């Protein structure tokens, strides 16, 4: 594989407040071929401001791997599937990576 | 919201050696509006070289969400609040994300 | 230190299916000066498609810190040391960070 054929990928991060909800988000995104795979990490402690006070809550992080091309469809799906009003959905670029792994991500997210 | 108004955000990562120190860093940064929110994950196993030997230690990771604009103030605050001589403070760019969530990050970090 | 001397760094992520394998990957990369340090987080729940069905498995995430310059050598080493046929090896750029910490990453990965 030449560098020019390596697909651009993204590491997408969302969080939710229960293990089974994190599992449903990860499983649903992979099932729909919107992400090649996902890891669920948790419980983690979330710290945020709510009505003027700093609060903490248990959450689960979901790390999803997808391509640039599929990002918008994944984000739309996550917003719909998530039960938060304004869920965290952020993506950082994958600028280096195993060519074989990136090719697998692209293949797994091709409908 | 148009794409041009979406604020540029950063995912900032630091680590420390106790859960209560991680909590204080996360809470303090959110309290000071230097980060919109944070997640604490741990204990994780840190592996590093110390005086020639590879050592392991329990640490806690803190993932903070802020804007480009607030990064320098957040880094200065973390360096001051942290009790390591050279703490890990690194940031990766958020190049895609939910516009509503990114707007919330910007609003929460506006003094 | 001026901004121009701050080395470009990467946050590299791999996953494996046992804590001792994650430890060996982290320790071996630091031992070989291919990464300055690593954090192992797990067990996490991995979700992926296998032979048409969505499966879950326990995995451990390894977060490695290195420089752009050492990335290719680190990736080669990880591919060799890993027992998966197509391991996840992805890297996101560190675009901001503590100058002292980034200098330490560069020093620790200099042979």
UniProtKB/TrEMBL annotation, chains A, B, C:
InterPro entries: Ion_tolerance_CutA, N-reg_PII-like_a/b, N-reg_PII/ATP_PRibTrfase_C. GO terms for biological process: response to metal ion. GO terms for molecular function: copper ion binding. It comes from the Bacteria. PANTHER family: DIVALENT CATION TOLERANCE CUTA-RELATED, FI09726P. Belongs to the CutA family. This is Divalent cation tolerance protein. It comes from Streptomyces longispororuber. The lineage of its organism: Bacteria, Bacillati, Actinomycetota, Actinomycetes, Kitasatosporales.
């Amino acid at each position: 594989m030449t560098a020019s054929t390596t697909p651009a990928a993204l590491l997408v991060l969302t969080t939710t407040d229960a293990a089974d909800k994190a599992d449903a988000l990860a499983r649903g995104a992979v099932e729909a071929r919107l992400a090649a795979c996902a890891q669920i990490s948790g419980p983690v402690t979330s710290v945020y401001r709510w009505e003027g006070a700093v609060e903490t809550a248990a959450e689960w992080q979901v790390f999803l791997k997808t391509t640039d091309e599929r990002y918008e469809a994944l984000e739309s799906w996550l917003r719909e599937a998530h039960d938060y009003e304004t869920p965290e959905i952020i993506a950082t670029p994958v600028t280096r990576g195993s060519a074989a792994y990136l090719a697998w991500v692209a293949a797994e997210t091709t409908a």
